[in-house]
């Protein structure tokens, strides 16, 4: 399959965003917000962040650390997306999958309390 056929299949044209990519970016945004909200709630009821680096950052800088970490990850993904537009779908997918899984894990943990 040549590059133009792949672009047509994915609905991508250089400088454009496919419906699937747009949906994934929306999912990334929702997961980002939900992860911050669920983490803030969990911390407020006495739960502890399990990631040692993020735990230290949260203790030092508060929830701003989580927001900055998420914003940094989105910035890296956007740079990747614009440098390699032929792999545009990889950038939001690389954030959406782990962040949605984290949100589901956090929600399940909070629901079990």
From TrEMBL:
The chain crosses the membrane at residues 22-48, 60-83, 89-111. InterPro entries: DUF5658 (IPR043717). Residues 28-108 form the DUF5658 domain. Pfam families: DUF5658 (PF18902). It comes from the Archaea. Keywords: Membrane, Transmembrane, Transmembrane helix. This is DUF5658 domain-containing protein. It comes from Halosimplex pelagicum.
């Amino acid at each position: 399959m040549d590059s133009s056929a792949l672009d047509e299949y994915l609905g991508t044209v250089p400088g454009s965003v496919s419906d699937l990519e747009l949906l994934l970016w929306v999912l990334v945004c929702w997961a980002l917000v939900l992860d911050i909200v669920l983490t803030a709630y969990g911390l407020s009821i006495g739960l502890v962040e399990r990631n040692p680096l993020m735990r230290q950052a949260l203790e030092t800088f508060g929830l701003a650390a989580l927001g900055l970490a998420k914003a940094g990850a989105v910035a890296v993904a956007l740079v990747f997306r614009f440098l390699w537009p032929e792999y545009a779908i990889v950038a939001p997918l690389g954030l959406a999958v782990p962040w949605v899984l984290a949100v589901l894990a956090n929600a399940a943990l909070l629901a079990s309390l």
